[in-house]
Amino acid sequence: MNKIAKATVRPTRSLDLLSHREINGLMESDVDVFNIFRDCALAVLNTGSERDDVAEIMDDYADFEVRVVSESRGIKLEVYNAPASAFVDGKMIRGIQEHLFAALRDIVYTEHKINRGSRFDLETGAGLTDAVFRILRNAGIVQANRYPNLVVCWGGHSIDRLEYDYSKEVGYQMGLRGLDVATGCGIGAMKGPMKGALIGHAKQQIRDGRYVGITEPGIIASESPNPTVNELVILPDIEKRLEAFVRLAHCIIVFPGGAGTAEEILYLLGILMHPDNQKIPIPLIFAAPEGREEYFQTLDGFIRKTLGEEATKYYQIVIGEPERVALMAKLGVETVIRYRRGTQESYAYNWNTVVPEEMQRPFHPSHENMASLQLDPKLPTHELAAQLRRAFSGIVAGNVKAFGIKQVQEKGPYLLHGDAQLMGQLDRLLKEFVQQGRMKLRDEDYVPCFKLVTDPVKS
Asked: Residue 371's pLDDT band (boundaries 50, 70, 90)?
């Protein structure tokens, strides 16, 4: 494990021009916030790593430090004991350097604006949507004069070669058709589409292709960005990250994953099934290679049993045929363009879609909050989807996020209470995920971080 004892880097794009007042505000940031930045900075410096064990990475680089140095002309960062893989001939790789300052911008600088500058309204749904927009605009992700062609790709990070190659081929076919890609910025099904699109763009001589990585601190700390990402943004929490995907997407493709992918699907279905969103097109495609259709078969069965047959009209399932998937995505984007042109909606940011305020509020998966979830089939389907999304958010935290793993170690598994039939469907889904090897990277050692409890029947 090679390390660089000390290196100094300056901003190239993000935070390259700050006033003295802005610099002072950045330097006065809360210690806890800066510690989050330190963890994310380490993840960025591990860009390209296939490791996803956050505790192991933190142990290996326990002596890693990053310091912000103020100068009259701006700021610079000093890093100590950083991974040598982030450097070539003693100089930090340009893409990693840009991601490092993107992390500083989104975690420290933006936090200062939100909490100290009082420039964001986080008390209303409209204010939260505005905050997401302004964070994305500040990061250069929302671009006014850009042709609308951004396809969001979701899927698992710990997938095998067959699924990775399939996601890469779909990305390649999209790149040939001039489509850009946004993912959660990690490896696996987040890396594959980007790498494929990069090749497709190169063949078409598209020199400004976009490979947008959208993440949040708890995820990026355990999943380093993949090397293809050329635009990185870190939203403050999972809910703002999910809303960013929906507001930016012109089409969404989902590849096989695990509990985290199921969480994203349920979040999106909760929005699509909302009564106020019935006429707003957000094309959604579930795509898997031949021989790996069991993930979507399992999930499709769960959706039908819990949210009803009506939910299935919002997505299409394609097995194999990567070229067909890319063509469907292109046609989906064209449908969205026509709709937005007809409604005078922004091409860059989907303002009109209603995201209920309760889906915007950060859900902290504590034992108390997980036990308080309303997993009740009597709820309106879009509300039940939102509750199930939170349950999966907690499962993901207990599986891979440092704070969730620690909570489960100290207090035992999360308890999920609900209707007997619904709990039965959820139990079946999660057991099949484990059997398919989709709950963690090393599922043979998997110990559930949750326990399902059937509520007594009320007379």
From this structure: very high
